[in-house]
Design goal:
- The protein is 81% helix and 0% strand.
- The protein has 2 helices and no strands.
- It is mainly alpha-helical and 70 residues long.
């Protein structure tokens, strides 16, 4: 019985406070810094996709069966 009382008096209130504090932070959305970082990452991913397409096109011309070697 004592562990249940200790849990209800000490652990449960702390757990609830931390839970709802984290829920509040999530519902606020992205901060300005996070939005800028996300935009930069998206731009980098687009550049990398273009580079991959270019490299695949070069490989297709120089070594047509390179995909079958994998």
């Amino acid at each position: 019985m004592a562990p249940v009382i200790i849990f209800m008096v000490i652990v449960a209130p702390i757990w609830l406070v931390l839970h709802y504090r984290s829920k509040g932070q999530v519902s606020q959305g992205l901060s300005e810094e996070e939005y800028i970082q996300l935009s930069d990452l998206s731009e980098t991913a687009d550049k990398m996709a273009d580079r991959i397409k270019t490299l695949e096109a070069i490989l297709d011309v120089e070594t047509p069966d390179w995909r079958n070697k994998l």
